[in-house]
């Protein structure tokens, strides 16, 4: 698969994995749409990309603003070839001390906002008969990790949505990829929410010593090119944990075969 001449849209593109993916896509010849809350930081990332870019800033929790961005993106791109649901926030707090609002905020940002944006693009991609949807989950979306109960709930949910969507779109030529990063050297820990919802403000040594974001981005896009549906990007124990919970390709194929056999039509007819 070649990214040359394609158009890809990335949320959470102002830093970390999102920025690294945008830069790598530009290196591979794709035009890139960059979204996030901070327009100035998005402009800094855009300046590092060799290809044409479009900056569409908005808060992912603002669904109306997201829909306006979709209306701007489609004419500019002539069609979205790839969408990366990357925006998110992590957590570092014990469940026994965590305010319920932290759960609401993380689920809204990491899960519901990503679903809303995808749902706005799915009809376009399905009608077009092509495209790639990338969902940035986490090893914490496969294995329950202490101090991240809200984050795990959201990332497990995102993976479940992606798996079901993959099956439905398997008859439309749209490919769905779920990415499970381990420790990547970004600001994810520093920006994580504490028990009261405040920004943590400090990093973890395991994150600081994690896989460089640029290396992770290259691994992700190589795996997408190879048609992998579950993409684990981690080292050491994190990789081993992710591999232990890997979904067999045969199961994905079995569910896709159900769709090809008319499962959804039969369900709708029975309703």
Written overview of the protein:
It is a single chain. Helices cover 48% and strands 14% of the residues. By secondary structure, it is an alpha/beta fold. The chain has one domain: NAD(P)-binding Rossmann-like Domain (Rossmann fold, 3-Layer(aba) Sandwich). Strands 3-2-1-4-5-6-9 form a 7-stranded parallel sheet, sandwiched between helices. A two-stranded parallel sheet has the order 7-8. Strand 7, helix 6 and strand 8 form a beta-alpha-beta unit. Helix 1 packs across helix 7, helix 3 runs parallel beside helix 4 and helix 5 crosses helix 9. The protein is globular, with a radius of gyration of 18 Å.
- What is the name of the CATH class? Alpha Beta
Counting structural domains, the number is 1
CATH topology: Rossmann fold
Fraction of residues in H or I helices: 40-55%
**Low confidence ranges:** none
Order of helices and strands: EHEHEHEHEHEEHEHEHHH
Tell me, what's the shape?
globular
Radius of gyration: 18 Å
Number of helices: 10
> N-to-C terminal Cα separation, in Å?
40 Å
Question: Mind sketching the topology for me?
Answer:
Elements: E1 7-10, H1 16-27, E2 31-34, H2 39-46, E3 53-55, H3 63-77, E4 82-85, H4 100-128, E5 131-136, H5 149-169, E6 174-181, E7 184-185, H6 205-208, E8 211-212, H7 213-225, E9 230-233, H8 236-244, H9 249-260, H10 263-270
Parallel strand pairs: 1-2, 1-4, 2-3, 4-5, 5-6, 6-9, 7-8
Helix pairs in contact: 1-7, 3-4, 4-5, 5-9
């Amino acid at each position: 698969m070649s990214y040359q001449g394609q158009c890809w849209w990335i949320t959470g593109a102002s830093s970390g994995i999102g920025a690294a993916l945008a830069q790598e896509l530009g290196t591979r010849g794709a035009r890139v749409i960059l979204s996030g809350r901070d327009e100035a930081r998005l402009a800094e990332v855009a300046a590092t990309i060799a290809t044409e870019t479009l900056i569409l800033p908005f808060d992912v929790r603002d669904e109306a603003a997201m829909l306006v961005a979709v209306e701007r993106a489609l004419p500019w791109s002539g069609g979205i070839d790839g969408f990366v649901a990357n925006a998110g926030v992590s957590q570092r707090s014990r469940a026994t001390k965590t305010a319920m609002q932290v759960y609401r905020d993380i689920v809204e940002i990491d899960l519901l906002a990503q679903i809303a944006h995808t749902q706005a693009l799915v009809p376009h991609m399905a009608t077009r008969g092509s495209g790639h949807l990338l969902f940035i989950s986490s090893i914490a979306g496969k294995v329950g990790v202490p101090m991240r109960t809200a984050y795990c709930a959201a990332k497990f949910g995102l993976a479940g949505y992606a798996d079901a969507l993959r099956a439905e779109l398997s008859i439309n030529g749209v490919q769905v990829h779920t990415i499970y990063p381990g420790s990547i050297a970004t600001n994810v820990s520093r920006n994580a929410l504490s028990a009261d919802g405040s920004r943590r403000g400090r990093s973890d040594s395991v994150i600081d010593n994690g896989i460089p974001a640029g290396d992770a981005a290259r691994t992700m896009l190589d795996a997408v090119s190879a048609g992998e549906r579950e993409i684990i990007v981690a080292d050491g124990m994190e990789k081993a944990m992710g591999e232990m919970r890997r979904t067999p390709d045969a199961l994905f194929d079995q569910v896709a075969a159900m769709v090809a056999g008319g499962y959804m039509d039969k369900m709708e007819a029975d309703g």
